[in-house]
C-alpha cells in the first residue's frame, strides 16, 4: 500500500507542476500577442514606474532568455527579457511592472522580502545537501542523515511560503501602478491581472509540490527506525 501511495504522490506532484507551468506559459503566450493601445514598451513602463517611485538609481537592462525577468536587489537592477524589454504587448508591460513592484518592496523594506533574502544562502545549500544527506543515509543506514535531508526540504518549503506573499504583493503593486498611470485600458488591465495571477499560481504549485515531496519522503523512511 505504501508503494502505491508514495508513487501516487510523486505523480500528483508532477501533474500539479506541469499544469501550473502549462497555464502560465499559455497565458503569457496569449497576452504577449495582444498589443497595448499606447504602444508602450516594457522598458518604458518600468522606467516610468521606477522614476515615479523615487528609484532613479535602479537600472533597467535587457537580458537573454524566456521568462527570465527578475529584480536584483543586490545590484539594484530590473532585468527584463528581450520580448518584455522591447515588446509593446499587455504581457510585456505587466511583467515589467511586476518586477518594478519588487524594487518598490525593496525600497519600502517589505518584511517578507527581507526574510526571503536572508533564507537564500540556506536554501541554496539545502537544495544540494538535502538529497546528498538522504542518499548517504540510505547507503550507510544512517537514519539521522535521512531525517536531516528531509529537514532540508522543510527549509525549502519555508522559503517558498515566504516567496508567495512577496510575489502576490509585487503583482498588486504593479496592477495599482498600471491603473494609476493609465498605461493600460480597463480591458487590458484585466488581461494583465489574469496573466500575473497565472504567474502567481506557479508559486502556489511549487508549495503544493514540495509539501507532497516531504510527505513522500516521510512515508518512504518513517519505518526505518523500527527495522
Mean pLDDT score:
90
Structural class: mainly alpha
The level of helicity is over 70%
Order of strands, widest sheet = 1-3-2
Order of secondary-structure elements: HHEEEHHHHH
- What Rg, in angstroms, do the CA atoms define? 21 Å
Oligomer state of the chains in this structure: single chain
Shape: elongated
Q: Count of DSSP helices? A: 7
Total beta strands: 3
Count of discrete structural domains: 1
Terminal CA distance reads 18 Å
Strand proportion, as a percent range, falls in 5-15%
Quick description:
The chain is mainly alpha-helical. Helices cover 75% and strands 6% of the residues.
Description:
The protein has 7 helices and 3 strands. The protein has one domain (2-226). The model has no long low-confidence stretch (mean pLDDT 90). It has 227 residues and is mainly alpha-helical. Helices cover 75% and strands 6% of the residues. It has a 3-stranded mixed β-sheet.
Name its key features.
227 residues, mainly alpha, three-stranded mixed sheet, 7 helices, 6% strand
Which SSEs are present, and which pair or pack?
Blueprint lengths: L1 H31 L9 H11 L6 E5 L6 E3 L4 E5 H5 L3 H19 L2 H30 L2 H39 L4 H36 L6
Parallel strand pairs: 1-3
Antiparallel strand pairs: 2-3
Helix pairs in contact: 1-7, 2-4, 4-6, 4-7, 5-6, 6-7
Amino acid at each position: 500500500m505504501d508503494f502505491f501511495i508514495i508513487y501516487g504522490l510523486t505523480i500528483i506532484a508532477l501533474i500539479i507542476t506541469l499544469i501550473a507551468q502549462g497555464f502560465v506559459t499559455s497565458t503569457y503566450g496569449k497576452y504577449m500577442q495582444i498589443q497595448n493601445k499606447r504602444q508602450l514598451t516594457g522598458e518604458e513602463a518600468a522606467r516610468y514606474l521606477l522614476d515615479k517611485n523615487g528609484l532613479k538609481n535602479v537600472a533597467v537592462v535587457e537580458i537573454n532568455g524566456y521568462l527570465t525577468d527578475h529584480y536584483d536587489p543586490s545590484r539594484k537592477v530590473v532585468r527584463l527579457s528581450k520580448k518584455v524589454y522591447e515588446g509593446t504587448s499587455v504581457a510585456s508591460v505587466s511583467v515589467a511592472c511586476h518586477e518594478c513592484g519588487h524594487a518598490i518592496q525593496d525600497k519600502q523594506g517589505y518584511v517578507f522580502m527581507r526574510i526571503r533574502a536572508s533564507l537564500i544562502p540556506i536554501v541554496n545549500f539545502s537544495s544540494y545537501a538535502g538529497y546528498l544527506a538522504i542518499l548517504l543515509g540510505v547507503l550507510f543506514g544512517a537514519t539521522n542523515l535521512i531525517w536531516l535531508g528531509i529537514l532540508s526540504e522543510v527549509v525549502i518549503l519555508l522559503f517558498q511560503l515566504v516567496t508567495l506573499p512577496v510575489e502576490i504583493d509585487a503583482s498588486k503593486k504593479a496592477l495599482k501602478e498600471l491603473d494609476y498611470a493609465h498605461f493600460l485600458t480597463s480591458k487590458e488591465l484585466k488581461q494583465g491581472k489574469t496573466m500575473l495571477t497565472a504567474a502567481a499560481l506557479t508559486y502556489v504549485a511549487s508549495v503544493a509540490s514540495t509539501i507532497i515531496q516531504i510527505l513522500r519522503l516521510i512515508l518512504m523512511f518513517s519505518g526505518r527506525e523500527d527495522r
